Amino acid sequence: MIFIELIYYLYTTYKSLQLAHPTGNSMDLRKLEIFACVAKLESFSQAAKTLHMAQPAVSIAVRKLEEELNHCLFERNTRSIRLTDQGQVALKKAQEILQQVSAFKSSMNELGNILRGELSIACPSMLATYYFPDLLARFLGQHPGLTASVVQSGTPNIERMLLNDEVELGVITVQGQHEGLDIIPLIKEEIVICVGDQHPLKNRKRINIKQMHNSTMVLYQQDYFIRQKLDNLCKKEDVSLDIRMQTNFLPLLTRMVKNNYGATVGLGMMVSQEDGIFGVQLQPKMEIQMAIARRKGRKVSAANQAFLNWLVEEINI
Question: pTM of this prediction?
Fold first, then answer.
């Protein structure tokens, strides 16, 4: 470690000497900075103090610049210095160059601070449709260098994908222990019966699952957690449903419900955001807790980690 520090010290010392004592005929920005400082202060000694340089080094740098430009930039006497006509022109150009370099450095620093990459997350269709659009819009609005990729799947499959490292982040349903996963709770929602404006249950506030016996239903397929919850409840209460259609395409489900072809089960957010769909509370009441998860010990991308950090602050976890 001491050897490395010594090498670094010698290197930085060499670079500082290069800047203080430029050689060759190539003009560099350091000479322009020194020249501009001397012109501003009208003093080699004051410029040396400001630049934390030895006065001879300042004088050498200005003289080298004059040689490269083939013009005398200062009129020198024993008491003061002032710019020549050529020096005034050179100062204006030097200031323009230095301002442009400063602006360039600032813009590159800002560019370096912009988070870039792709936020990628697996999410069930209902949350992807009704919950995440506002979140993603706010987050991506704060990070113009990011894009997003959202993969749609059921929560049981998403949990498998997380454990198999097929995705870095995924939205799952919280139930019992999730071995191997780190989770951040997101939202708790009630599962309700969703019906159209001509459905007989439209004006009902709540309904017991036993009263749904033989009801016409359009449902998610069985790999979706919300469907599994309904199936388990029906089995427990000895209820049979008349399932006319099964699909994981949420727009198809909502259209069939709005067309009054059948009822479905959905989260409360679906009812609040879909015109023409009405919610009926189920008895016994069913709720699900959703969370965003990643595999324990997995390092995620900078974009995904930034989203996780932002979520924790946004939803006040």
Answer: 0.63
